[in-house]
């Protein structure tokens, strides 16, 4: 039997005050039912089922109905126009669980209509996305573990989380309701584990270390496969969309490209004009690499030229920010690049691709609602955009060009 009172993150599963103990089988069934009910159906990764498609009716009623379901929807076929981005403010993603602690991670579930919000209040919370109330599904509290980063695995079945001053990596199985700490990875000598990336295919976990090291782990076993070392300090890392390459940005503005299988350096180049790199991102379609610097400049490169040339020239340098670029995120259709700096209020811009021009209507600076952006994400089919700030709010916006979640 499982004592529900001793597990803070399971209290939401209690149907009444007298239900203090549940069998493991009953608890797992309850977790599964609650999670699937809140998501509006059984997700593809939990159970194979027939998926519904949306109609072409553009009425408000049909759109609301569409946003209640998961599945393979029909996307807008026309490309996103530049200039003005049609969007509206939604209820904060975490409005049902308010906090004043800094939001360190906000991420949409890869398969279901769910958003995760995590922060320095030691908690990870899951919310159903409906754009209106965004009901809370569940909160997981990690004692004395302020969240530095939390991330869904590629299949959406687990959440990985690291803390500010700890070498422990927590793995939370959402369906089983099981929280597993990974205390020590054999061969990994890092004293603190904070920054990490998960490969798009779900096979690898990349941990940023000190002294120029990046460590590649097996996602399944959490065992060390091998390490890569650059000159200087690792400022940011990311995988290519096919999970075959790793891009590592160094503190002195160089970018290293590694082969995942051999951990061999395929190429390295200097990011033009970058004296101190802070962030790097690759597009989902394998076309672009974006590099953010401490000066506020974002260089957008053609990915092929970065692989083949020792001195590639950026397609465009985006100069709309004046403080260090701490966040870079491409939307799934590679039509928008979100750039942000947490060093200044309202320092978020959305860049149209392939024109590389900034949308003029975001943010609305006079309203000053964003404050300092800490983390950003787009939903799986770009229908929503979320920004987490230092005041504990996970702001959410509906992008009208995209007809589904």
Automatic annotation (TrEMBL):
PROSITE patterns hit by this protein: WD_REPEATS_1 (PS00678), WD_REPEATS_2 (PS50082)
Q: Where is the composition biased (Basic and acidic residues)?
A: 1-14
Q: Where in the cell does this protein reside?
A: Nucleus, Nucleolus
Which stretches does the entry tag as region Disordered?
A: 1-26, 38-69
Instruction: Give the InterPro entries listed for this entry.
Output: Utp18, WD40/YVTN_repeat-like_dom_sf, WD40_repeat_CS, WD40_repeat_dom_sf, WD40_rpt
GO terms in the biological process aspect are: rRNA processing
- Biased composition range(s): Acidic residues: 56-65
Query: Keyword Phosphoprotein on this protein?
Result: yes
Q: Name one GO cellular component term.
A: Pwp2p-containing subcomplex of 90S preribosome
Q: Which UniProt keywords apply?
A: Nucleus, Phosphoprotein, Repeat, rRNA processing, WD repeat
How the protein assembles, per its UniProt entry?
Part of the small subunit (SSU) processome, composed of more than 70 proteins and the RNA chaperone small nucleolar RNA (snoRNA) U3.
UniProt record similarity statement = Belongs to the WD repeat UTP18 family.
Q: What is this protein called?
A: U3 small nucleolar RNA-associated protein 18 homolog
């Amino acid at each position: 039997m499982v004592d529900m009172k001793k597990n803070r993150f399971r209290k939401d599963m209690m149907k009444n005050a007298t239900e203090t103990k549940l069998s493991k089988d009953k608890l797992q069934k309850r977790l599964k039912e609650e999670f699937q009910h809140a998501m509006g159906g059984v997700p593809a990764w939990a159970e194979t089922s027939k998926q519904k498609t949306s109609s072409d009716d553009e009425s408000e009623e049909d759109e609301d109905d569409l946003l209640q379901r998961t599945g393979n929807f029909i996307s807008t076929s026309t490309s996103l126009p530049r200039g003005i981005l049609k969007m509206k403010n939604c209820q904060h993603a975490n409005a049902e669980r308010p906090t004043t602690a800094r939001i360190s991670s906000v991420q949409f579930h890869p398969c279901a209509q769910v958003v995760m919000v995590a922060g320095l209040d030691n908690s990870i919370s899951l919310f159903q996305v409906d754009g209106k109330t965004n009901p809370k599904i569940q909160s997981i509290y990690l004692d004395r573990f302020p969240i530095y980063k939390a991330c869904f695995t590629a299949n959406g079945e687990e959440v990985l989380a690291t803390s500010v001053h700890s070498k422990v990596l927590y793995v939370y199985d959402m369906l089983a309701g099981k929280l597993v700490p990974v205390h020590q990875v054999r061969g990994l000598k890092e004293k603190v584990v904070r920054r990490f990336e998960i490969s798009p295919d779900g096979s690898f976990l990349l941990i940023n270390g000190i002294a120029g090291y990046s460590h590649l782990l097996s996602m399944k076993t959490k065992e060390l496969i091998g390490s890569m070392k650059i000159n200087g300090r690792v400022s940011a890392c990311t995988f290519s969309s096919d999970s075959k390459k790793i891009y590592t940005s160094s503190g002195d503005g160089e970018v290293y490209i590694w082969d995942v299988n051999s951990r061999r350096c395929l190429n390295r180049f200097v990011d033009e004009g970058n004296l101190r790199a802070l962030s790097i991102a690759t597009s989902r379609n394998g076309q672009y690499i974006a590099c953010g610097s401490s000066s506020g400049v974002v260089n957008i490169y053609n990915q092929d030229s970065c692989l083949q040339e020792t001195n590639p020239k950026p397609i465009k340098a985006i100069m709309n920010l004046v403080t260090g670029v701490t966040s870079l995120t491409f939307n799934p259709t590679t039509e928008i690049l979100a750039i942000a700096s947490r060093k200044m209020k309202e320092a978020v811009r959305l860049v149209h691709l392939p024109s590389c021009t900034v949308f003029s209507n975001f943010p609305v600076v006079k309203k000053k609602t964003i404050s300092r952006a800490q983390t950003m994400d787009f939903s799986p089919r770009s229908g929503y955009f979320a920004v987490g700030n230092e005041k504990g709010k996970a702001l959410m916006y509906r992008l009208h060009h995209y007809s589904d979640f």
